[in-house]
Specification:
two-stranded parallel sheet, RNA_pol_sigma_r3/r4-like, RNA_pol_sigma_r2, globular, RNA polymerase sigma-70 factor (ECF subfamily), single chain, Arc Repressor Mutant, subunit A, DNA binding, mainly alpha, TPR-like_helical_dom_sf, disordered N terminus, 421 residues, 21 helices
């Protein structure tokens, strides 16, 4: 038997990796709509992707790769169900799945695959799961991040994160957590968790924890899509509007965040003519609607910070004192030390790096394993011309970064100190 040529192997693998990133949530949601067993659905989807690698290397890509994977995953699920002892008793429950198996794989064009991602995110954010598990499970199932990437984002070991995800899947199945969007009476207890997860998905796209580039536009756009769906479900909710405003105001800068070679461009050096002014206008309008409801929340405060940046003509003219005050309010509201780190950065531009460094020194116990803490500290020390300490801080930041573009940027800053020294 002839082996597939290296280009065929590479092409199939790249297609599967791209599909896993872009369509995992949609495919898993479609399976869960019929199977209602989280672990089985994930296992069958993974087996289908493995089968795709074998078949596509040999036969080439199908007309509908996502449809092929979904149909294969359904058939693997049906095989498992038929082998189960209670299949006869539960056959009626799986009738729809059995009917789907009789359809042609080509019927599942990407646009025709049911979009169950919002139901999936509510399942992942059920109150029976803790917040960290909800975020991790959403990043894995909805966005296709690897366990290693998620572990790095949470500063956990890969084994610990894998075990957390396994326990979460089993808990969803054992507890009978429903695969559904909750009714209005349950929104209050679920809303904040869902919005937080959507924003963390966006943040992973805006500042990727791993990979060769620092920006993953697909995740940013997925988060914006989910936020828009949330607004359709709850059109007069201030924090949903605040989250949408925040994401729009940040994503509007995307074109200016990389140079033509893909290198990272920091905020103070961005060409603001590249910012998407139409998107900024949409973000400001969402923020105005949110604030008019007089129901303040952390996403609205963060969006207000984004608005200060968006309305400044340049970095020097930014209202840094206003930003510092807004971060004070955020910390009072959430207790998150990262907001104090961001406040320190704002203080450094309003009052100087010395004042900011004294704030950072008090945060080391909480943020000592957080890469942006060391990157910010390195920049302050560089600006104070404390070059030896700055070098050490840059090296620490580089060691904690899993992103190639980010490491290149920090390495460039480290090398530039030799020219300043």
């Amino acid at each position: 038997m002839c082996r597939a040529s290296p280009p065929a192997v590479t092409g199939a693998r790249q297609a599967i990796e791209a599909l896993a990133r872009a369509d995992t949530g949609r495919l898993l949601g479609s399976l869960l709509n019929h199977i209602r067993d989280f672990q089985m659905a994930e296992d069958c989807l993974q087996e289908a992707l493995e089968s795709a690698l074998v078949h596509w290397q040999r036969s080439g890509l199908p007309a509908s790769p996502a449809g092929w994977v979904l149909q294969t995953a359904r058939r693997k699920a049906i095989d498992r169900l038929r082998r189960a002892r209670n299949f006869e008793r539960k056959a009626a429950e799986y009738a729809v799945l059995l009917d789907l198996d009789r359809e042609s794989v080509e019927c599942d064009e990407p646009a025709a695959i049911p979009d169950e991602r919002l139901r999936l995110i509510f399942t992942c954010c059920h109150p029976a799961l803790d917040a960290k598990t909800s975020v991790a499970l959403t990043l894995r199932t909805l966005c296709g991040l690897t366990t290693r990437e998620i572990a790095r984002a949470f500063l956990d070991s890969e084994d610990a994160m894998a075990q957390r995800l396994v326990r979460a899947r089993h808990k969803i199945t054992r507890a009978g957590i429903p695969f559904e969007i909750p009714g209005p009476d349950l929104w209050s207890e679920r809303l904040n968790a869902v919005l937080t997860v959507i924003y963390l998905v966006f943040n992973e796209g805006y500042s990727a924890t791993a990979g060769p580039t620092h920006l993953r536009t697909d995740l940013c756009e997925e988060a914006l899509r989910l936020g828009s769906l949330m607004k359709v479900l709850r059109p007069a909710e201030a924090e949903i509007e605040g989250l949408l405003a925040l994401m729009l105001l940040i994503h509007a800068r995307a074109s200016a965040r990389s140079d033509p070679y893909g290198a990272m461009v920091p905020l103070d050096r961005q060409d603001r003519t590249l910012w998407d002014r139409a998107m900024i206008a949409r973000g400001l309008a969402e923020l105005d609607r949110a604030l008019s409801r007089h129901s303040p929340g952390p996403f609205q405060l963060q969006a207000a910070i984004g608005a200060v940046h968006a309305e400044a003509p340049d970095h020097a003219a930014t209202g840094w004192r206003d930003i510092a005050l807004l971060y004070d309010g955020l910390h009072a509201m959430t207790g998150n030390p990262v907001h104090l780190l961001n406040r320190a950065v704002a203080v450094s531009f309003a009052e100087g790096p010395e004042a900011a460094l004294s704030i950072l020194d008090r945060l080391e116990a909480d943020l000592g394993q957080y890469q942006p803490f060391h990157a910010a500290r390195a920049d302050l020390l560089r600006r104070m011309r404390r070059f030896d300490s700055a070098r050490a801080a840059y090296r620490r930041a580089i060691s904690l970064s899993g992103n190639g573009s980010e490491r290149d940027f920090l390495s460039g800053r480290l090398e530039a100190i030799a020219e300043d020294d």
